[in-house]
Amino acid sequence: MNHTVILTIGFPGSGKSTVARTIANSLGATYLDKDTICNGFTGLLLELNGESANARENSTLYKEKIMPMEYQTLFKAANDTLSSNQFIVIDAPFISFFDDPSFIKNQREALNWADVNVCVVEVTASLDITKERLIQRGEKRDLWKLDNWESFSQRIINQTCSWDYVNKFSFDNSSTSPNVEQLVQDIKNTTPKSDNQ
């Protein structure tokens, strides 16, 4: 069986998780969400360090220790499910790794993914839509973003994924009815055919 790991990435408020779930449902894929897998443990670790459970942007412990562990856990979970499903969708921002072109190459080597097809779906949305979604979802972890909207929005504008060694798709999710079906078909077209297909 040929395997495809789909990283659905992007800034909070882009609608990334909605797109990731739609892709997973369409492909019958294993769906791995960073928030579901990691947030409980992350919050506890931050509280044990005397910080807010929602600390992210201003926490040195989170940035230097916890966040790398979160992503390592996601990749290991994906690796463990390769034998049971052709498609795996990872739903996580990955923003802090956007500027490292060799990020995926390094993950491939660490996991021995020479024959795994890696697709990246970078989900974006207009700034107005992004801000509206952050307000509507009402998460405490988004308060810093909204309180510092000027600097956060500039980061959205200026920071895009620069990874090599991937099949990359840019997906504008500003519309109320984006064409995810076409995106799913494009992803399928990147998947190598096995000998018995």
Beta-strand segment tally: 5
* Overall mean confidence score, pLDDT: 92
The largest β sheet comes out as: 5 strands, parallel
Taken as a percent bin, the fraction of beta residues is 5-15%
State the distance separating the first and last CA atoms: 10 Å
SS-based structural class?
Answer: alpha/beta
Low-confidence stretches: none
| Fraction of residues in H or I helices | 40-55%
SSE run: EHEHHEHEHHHEH
Number of helices: 8
Strand arrangement within the widest β-sheet reads 2-3-1-4-5
Shape: globular
Cα radius of gyration in angstroms: 17 Å
Structure description:
The protein is of the alpha/beta class and 197 residues long. The chain has 8 helices and 5 strands; from the N terminus they run βαβααβαβαααβα. The chain has helices at 16-27, 34-48, 60-81, 103-111, 127-137, 143-147, 149-158, 180-190; strands at residues 4-9, 30-33, 87-91, 117-124, 167-172. A 5-stranded parallel β-sheet has the order 2-3-1-4-5, sandwiched between helices. Helix 1 (16-27) crosses helix 8 (180-190) and helix 2 runs antiparallel to helix 3. It is globular, with a radius of gyration of 17 Å. 28% of the residues are buried. The model has no long low-confidence stretch (mean pLDDT 92).
